[in-house]
């Protein structure tokens, strides 16, 4: 199914006039199915690696860092390839396909090296697909409602993120300790998502000549209006602890049974699902930078709730709600902010630049926090990072304010 965007006037079906484009909805369905697949694995991975494979916290921090950051290796390449060819769907399809195949590859992977290789392949696939997919969303949407478009996409994406851990929980309840059944079911959902993308998502053609586009990418990524948001993103990213560490902290503090571990992901994703669209609309009204900084303030509170002296159900629910708020206020909002700072021809590469910074800094954060946990313990490590992130927020706001005015 091929649709050309070149020299074609915008229509309401494309999402202009305040409506969300059909392309955005279809990509949301693809992401929903893919997230069922990926979140099934993510929901069992921390316990699988620490309890079954036997990794220590520093080693787990390295693997979690790969899960967070290895996609940075190809994010710029994926964004530029989609821009250069003018067919971002085709690049996204390769990424979705690689990630789907990695699910079934987890079955024979039992050692540290094998698991690391499979996770690396999965994350490379994610890195390759993300910027072209977001460029498709931005290209099919009205610039005035980008926050809403990304919010709708992230909402559908998060439906899958809720269903994935629930499916993993159900499988582990029926067959305790059967991680293989989780991996096989995850692979099936990944294949269905890939099929929907290939058969039903329009192959939008975006942009002009490749050499002009490359020059604009180099020029615009180097301009001050994008450098400051990237610097703020780096500052905040290096102080963002991976979800797995927060869930392991809660599980250890409250002595939570292993079979209930996937439900922690469900709680976060339900909060994200409820807030993604409202916060996307709020970002369109009051400014995306404000919502982005506010989301990191919620993350500070989540660290305090996970590392503080109080345990029990109330503290755990607070961690999950605050973490979901953080993602709802930052994920699509960052892409929407950056997409308004570059031209249409360089949009995919601009988004990829921001995502690359997020991935690289979170890779460093995961390794650093794994070592910090090993040295000073769970609670002290979380409270220290909370203090550092709180101190960094005014600096991040100062960096982001000019970008907000430009956008």
Describe the protein in words.
The protein has one domain: Growth Hormone, Chain: A, CATH 1.20.1250.20. The chain has 16 helices and no strands. It has helices at residues 22-42, 45-52, 57-69, 72-85, 88-105, 112-139, 146-174, 179-200, 210-222, 224-237, 243-254, 262-286, 288-307, 313-339, 347-376, 378-406. The longest helix has 30 residues, at 347-376. The protein is globular, with a radius of gyration of 20 Å. It starts with 21 loop residues before the first helix and ends with a helix. The relative contact order is 0.17.
Write the layout of secondary structure elements.
Elements (H helix, E strand, L loop, with lengths): L21 H21 L2 H8 L4 H13 L2 H14 L2 H18 L6 H28 L6 H29 L4 H22 L9 H13 L1 H14 L5 H12 L7 H25 L1 H20 L5 H27 L7 H30 L1 H29 L1
Q: How many runs of DSSP E, i.e. beta strands?
A: 0
- What is the subunit arrangement here? single chain
The helical percent reads: over 70%
Q: What's the CATH H-level homologous superfamily?
A: MFS general substrate transporter like domains
Q: Overall mean pLDDT score?
A: 81
Low-confidence stretches: 1-17, 208-215
What is the CATH architecture annotation? Up-down Bundle
What global shape is seen?
A: globular
């Amino acid at each position: 199914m091929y649709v050309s965007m070149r020299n074609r006037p915008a229509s309401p079906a494309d999402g202009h006039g305040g409506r969300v484009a059909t392309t955005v909805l279809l990509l949301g369905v693809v992401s929903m199915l893919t997230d069922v697949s990926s979140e099934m694995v993510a929901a069992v991975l921390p316990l699988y690696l620490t309890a079954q494979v036997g990794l220590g916290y520093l080693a787990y921090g390295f693997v979690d860092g790969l899960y967070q950051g290895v996609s940075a290796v190809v994010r710029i390449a994926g964004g530029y390839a989609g821009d250069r060819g003018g067919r971002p769907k085709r690049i996204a399809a390769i990424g979705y396909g690689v990630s789907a195949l990695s699910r079934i590859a987890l079955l024979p992977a039992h050692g540290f090296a094998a698991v690391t290789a499979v996770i690396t392949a999965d994350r490379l696939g994610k890195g390759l697909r993300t910027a072209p997919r977001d460029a498709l969303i931005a290209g099919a949407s009205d610039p005035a409602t980008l926050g809403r478009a990304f919010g709708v996409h992230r909402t559908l994406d998060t439906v899958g993120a809720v269903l994935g851990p629930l499916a993993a929980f159900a499988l582990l309840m029926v067959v305790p300790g059967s991680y293989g059944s989780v991996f096989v079911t995850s692979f099936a959902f990944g294949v269905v998502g890939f099929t929907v993308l290939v058969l039903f998502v329009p192959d939008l053609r975006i942009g002009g000549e490749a050499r002009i586009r490359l020059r604009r990418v180099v020029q615009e990524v180097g301009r001050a209006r994008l450098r400051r948001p990237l610097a703020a993103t780096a500052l905040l990213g290096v102080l963002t602890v991976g979800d797995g560490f927060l869930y392991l902290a809660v599980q250890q503090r409250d002595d939570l049974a292993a079979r209930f571990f996937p439900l922690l992901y469900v709680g976060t994703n339900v909060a994200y699902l409820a807030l993604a669209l409202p916060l996307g609309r709020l970002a369109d009204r009051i400014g995306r930078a404000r919502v982005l900084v506010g989301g990191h303030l919620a993350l500070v509170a989540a660290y305090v709730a996970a590392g503080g002296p109080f345990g029990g159900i109330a503290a755990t629910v607070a961690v999950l709600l605050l973490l979901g708020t953080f993602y709802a206020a930052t994920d699509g909002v960052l892409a929407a902010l950056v997409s308004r700072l570059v031209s249409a021809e360089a949009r995919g590469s601009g988004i990829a630049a921001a995502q690359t910074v997020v991935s690289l800094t979170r890779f460093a954060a995961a390794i650093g926090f794994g070592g910090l946990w090993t040295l000073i313990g769970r609670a002290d490590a979380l409270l220290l990072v909370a203090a550092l992130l709180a101190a960094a927020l005014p600096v991040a706001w100062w960096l982001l304010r000019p970008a907000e005015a430009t956008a």
